Amino acid sequence: MIPALRAEYRKLVTTRLWWVLLLCMALYMAFLGGVMAFVLTQEGGGGAMTGGFGGGADEMPPLPPEDLVRTVYTLAPALGYVFPVIVGALAVTNEFRHMTITPTLLAEPRRSLVLGAKLVASLPLGALFGVVGTLATVATGALVLAVRGEPVLLDDPDVLLTLARSVLVLAVWAMVGVGFGAAMPNQVAAIVVLLAFTQFVEPLLRLFLGAFEPTEGIVRWLPGAAGEAVTGASFYASSGIGNLLPWWQGLLALVGYGLLLAALGRATSLRRDIS
Amino acid sequence: MTTTDGHVVVDHLSKRFGAVLAVDDLSFEVRPGRVTGFLGPNGAGKTTTLRMLLGLVSPTSGTATVSGRRYTDIPRPAHVVGAALEAASFHPGRSARDHLRVLAPQVGVPDSRCDEVLALVGLTDAADRRVGGFSLGMRQRLGLATTLLGDPRVLVLDEPANGLDPEGIAWLRAFLRHLAAEGRTVLVSSHVLSEVQQTVDDVVIIARGRLVHASSLAELARLARRTVRVASPDQDGLRRLVERVAGGSTPGAAVSLPEPGVAVLEGVEAAAVGAAAFAAGVELHELASRDVGLEDLFLQLTGERAASGAPPEPDGPGTRPVADAATERGAA
Ligand SMILES: Nc1ncnc2c1ncn2[C@@H]1O[C@H](COP(=O)(O)OP(=O)(O)OP(=O)(O)O)[C@@H](O)[C@H]1O
Ligand SMILES: [Mg+2]
């Protein structure tokens, strides 16, 4: 396993796309952190958000400070998780796109081990995305909150724990990406499906399924909701849509998604002939 | 060391892709210390066979082993078999050295080995250049460098001469001869015999997934021997001549009579035919000897010639299948 992990590490650092994506995530999260901090501290800001999603109203009371900072500081796992997912998926799809899967499997024919190494190697990479994404969000978010005269609560142990879980869940998202890439090794298809699902399909599912009582329970198990549960703060939940799993269940659900997708990939693309 | 050490054995191997039977009950053996050419036209099933040998494609039936083991059963297989399958298996963004460094941990060699093999294939100066900017010939060299990482006993190279200039082909030839001289098993595929003719000791020729010929190159060359065409207005005399040549004096000679008044004799010298005609008192209007090139023979064996529209040969007396192919050229 150690040689396989070293190989995976080298595959990563000898290409450039990952740090371009890392930079994109940092900029995107810094932007979102600042903007959301600003919007949520507007007069009736808490209500403005629900207004955006569920209709309803300015009667909504402003968010208490703890919820406010949590919503702002966890924007990375709530809205930016697509970056580590894509980086994880690329670790697999790139091999098929450039057919480097051939020399890879010649050097190590045990395909489960190759996939396992990719899953494990994605965790520190995802953690890097987690650290950078979370720090970028907090940097601008806290700055704007401070300027607006709100407490930033960066010395609150609960808030720090939330930040740590934000890093953790983004690391797991990279692993989910690896599983997804294995299940869908066509690079273009994988990226299109990932963007469509994370940016469009799942938010809509959460909105509609969450609106009806019989399906409400399912929503918490959707991957994005499970990811949000890990930090215990939900952009959607604080918008009054649906509730979340306990954090550890969310974590297990997300890990489960990653392993399930990886198993699917192992049984399909990685079992097939490489030709 | 066992008797199978360094041997590649393909045993009743078949592979079906949907409706296409890409490899059809193929069996052959490749020995160490020799360069073996694995030959066949485009689509013959060479790459598919090699991929099955390397555990990348699972056979529909049959087995392929290296030193008595399946590739996937060999621990650290890159130390036993070095394989390069196609020039395109590189990430264009990686440098040549990085391509090798990515593989080194799993091959199980130190990073210094990467520079060693780059030097062996003459890519030292291009080591830090991105592979995306490499010419086809440079990619072939990098592929070859990849195969050498683990210093393997057996080398499997799929069309390594593709994209090489004449100088590169000469270099590859010397390189492969050198590797075989070290006692390694070298299996190289090609779709043209002439490309590897000066390199290989043995040939395995396939067409449409089936084995059509396996022997040493020398034996193949013997099949491709000279033919002698004689023409005479004296049909009976010609018969007598043919009997005299094919009958006793020159064992192994084969004959065909492609048209009235013409005979094509194979496996004899023109001088011997001339002497026989003189002795038999036959008037000759033509006595011509012709070489059937190895490449022609290869095309006939693989059915390319027939496919390209040559008229079928009427069966002459005493004609063997291979001689038939050879005489057809002589008569054409
Ligand atoms: N993955 C695949 N799916 C379907 N058919 C395939 C696949 N791979 C190969 N084939 C078919 O199998 C046959 C043999 O192909 P193969 O690539 O082994 O030939 P080849 O001898 O290597 O030819 P070339 O000289 O062109 O490289 C061809 O008819 C090809 O179309
Ligand atoms: Mg081929």
List the helices and strands and how they pair.
The complex is a heterodimer of chains A (275) and B (332).
Chain A: H1 2-13, H2 17-40, H3 45-54, H4 65-73, H5 75-79, H6 82-97, H7 101-107, H8 111-147, H9 157-183, H10 187-209, H11 213-219, H12 223-231, H13 247-267
Helix pairs in contact in A: 1-8, 2-4, 2-8, 6-8, 6-9, 6-10, 8-9, 9-12, 9-13, 12-13
Chain B: E1 8-17, E2 20-30, E3 35-39, H1 46-53, E4 61-66, E5 81-84, H2 96-107, H3 112-120, H4 136-148, E6 154-157, H5 166-181, E7 185-190, H6 193-196, E8 202-207, E9 210-216, H7 217-223, E10 227-231, H8 235-249, E11 254-259, E12 262-266, H9 270-280, E13 286-290, H10 294-301, H11 304-307, H12 321-331
Parallel strand pairs in B: 3-7, 3-8, 5-6, 6-7
Antiparallel strand pairs in B: 1-2, 1-4, 8-9, 10-12, 10-13, 11-12
Helix pairs in contact in B: 2-3, 3-4, 8-9, 10-12
The complex binds adenosine-5'-triphosphate and magnesium ion.
